[in-house]
Amino acid sequence: MNNWIHKSNNDNDIVLSSKIKLSRNFKDLPFPNKLNYIKGRENGKNIYNVLINELNDEKITLYEMWNSNENINKEYEEKNLISKELFKNADKASFVVNEDETLSIMINEEDHIKLQCITAGLNLEDALKNAIIIDDKIEKNLNYAFDEKLGYLTTKLENLGTGMKASVVIHLPALKMSDEIKNISKHLDQVGMNIKGVHSEGTEVYGNIYEIFNKVSLGITEEDITSQLKSMVLNIISEEKKFREILLSKCKYELEDKVYRAYGILKSAVLLEFKETINLLSDVRLGAELSLIDIDKNKLNELLVVTKNLSLQNRLEKSLDAKQIKFERAKLVKEILI
C-alpha cells in the first residue's frame, strides 16, 4: 500500500483519496459501551495478535489509548485515522496503524472494530479489496456478530447490512465559489449520500476540501455502494471541471492573480494560521490543477497534513504556544515549497 500523500492520480488530483470503513462486532462480547475495561483491553490484544499472525507483509503498531502518548493519539485524530469517539473509551480502546498509514483499525470505539483502508485518488476498488482481505483474515480467527436478514450487527442502525462506509475526499473550489455545493448536497441527500467539509468551523468550510460518502449500507452490496459512489463522484468531477472552465474563460487574470498571491504568501509569510494555510493551499492547488502554476502536488498533499498543530509539535518534539505554532508552520511551509 502507498500513502495517498505521495502518489499522483489520474483525476487531475481533484480527488485526493478514497476510503473504505468496515464496522464489526463479535458475537460473544457486549458492545463497547457495555464492555468493562478488562475485557476491552483483552479484545484489543486478541485482534492485534490475529493481525500480527495474518499480515506478514505489513508492519503494524498497536497503540493502547490508556498507555500511549496523548499527543501521538491526537495527531492520528488530526490525520482522520482515528475518531474523537475513540477517546471516550480511553480506558479500554486501542488502535492499530500500518507504517504508511493506509490502514487503521480502531478497537472498542462505537463498535469492536472499525477497519479503514485508504488509497490515493479515486480508487474505491483497491480500498475495498484491501479492506476485505484484512476483514476476512480477522473473521477467519474471530466470530463476528452476523444476522442472515440484518447482516453485520452494529451499534448504529445506519451501519447494519454490509457495515460499510465508502468515502472520497475531493477538492471542489469552483463549485464552492459558484455556490453550487448546496445543489450538490441536496442531490446527494436524495440518493442516500452525504457531503461534508473536511476542515470546518460551524457551517463554514475552509480549504474547499470535501468528503462524500454513503449513508446507508443495508440491502445493498459492497460493490454496489462503491460503484454508485464512484459514479456520483465522476459526475461531480465533471461539474467541477465545467465551472473551472467558466472561471478561466471569464476571469483568467483574476484567477492567476489569486493563485500567485497565495503562493507568494505561503513562500514569504512569517506567521501562518492553520485556517489561512489551508485556504491558501487550496488556491495554489487549483492553479496547479489548471496548469497555471508548476508545482509538485505531492508537496501540497504533505502540507495538508504536517501543518496541523499536533503534527507540527510532534515533528519538533516539543510543546509550542499559539504564536510559536504559527511561526513554525510558516517556516515548515517554506521549507517544503521551496
TrEMBL record:
It catalyses: L-arginyl-[protein] + ATP = N(omega)-phospho-L-arginyl-[protein] + ADP + H(+). InterPro entries: Arg_Kinase, ATP-guanido_PTrfase, ATP-guanido_PTrfase_cat, Gln_synth/guanido_kin_cat_dom. Pfam families: ATP-gua_Ptrans. SUPFAM superfamilies: Glutamine synthetase/guanido kinase. ATP binds at residues 17-21, 165-169, 196-201. Its EC number is 2.7.14.1. Keywords: ATP-binding, Kinase, Nucleotide-binding, Transferase. GO terms for biological process: phosphocreatine biosynthetic process. Residues 14-243 form the Phosphagen kinase C-terminal domain. One of its GO terms (molecular function) is protein arginine kinase activity. Belongs to the ATP:guanido phosphotransferase family. Catalyzes the specific phosphorylation of arginine residues in proteins. PANTHER family: ARGININE KINASE 1-RELATED, ARGININE OR CREATINE KINASE. This is Protein-arginine kinase. It comes from Clostridium saccharobutylicum. The lineage of its organism: Bacteria, Bacillati, Bacillota, Clostridia, Eubacteriales. The gene is mcsB.
